[in-house]
User: Fold this.
Amino acid sequence: MSDFNSKIQTLTKLSAEVEDALKNEKLSPNAVAELSLLQVSLASLTQQIARSLASENQKASVEPVRAGLRILVAEDNPVNRQVALRQLKRMGYEAEAVENGKAALEVLKAQKFDLVLMDCYMPELDGFETTRAIRSEKEYPNAIPIIAMTASSSSNDVKACMNVGMNDLVAKPMNLELLEKILKKYLKAA
Assistant:
């Protein structure tokens, strides 16, 4: 299991580094091409791992659901989505995942959740704008705890998360013990 976690951590860190590197406007065309190729390779590996995790999730034995508590995971990276769902399932939570903020808003309108794990940087609608919408519009459950998930836990990121109304932050890759502690803090019945 620890070997699996270390591979996921490495893949997550590498994906974030490639994404950050591609934002550098001073890169040569060759460097951009090489990084883009690496990004495609990582995406392919991500799909393979996600399929493997999905298969393993079906076989995994889990604790009984914790008093019906439901968690929504908003995460654009398929591997990170699968890892988060697997961790939550192993802790006994019922969880559902969406790939961006727009989808999160749609699901929150239609279903009840007790907490949201929100990636900060997603396409279509990022975690910051999604949280602003949840906190400002009456059609969403304003009091729902929103926990930011981010690969960067700099003081600026923490401040930005709190400024939009997120309740807390967990760094990716997520440490299972820390995640459990944060969930218990916001899900009183946990």
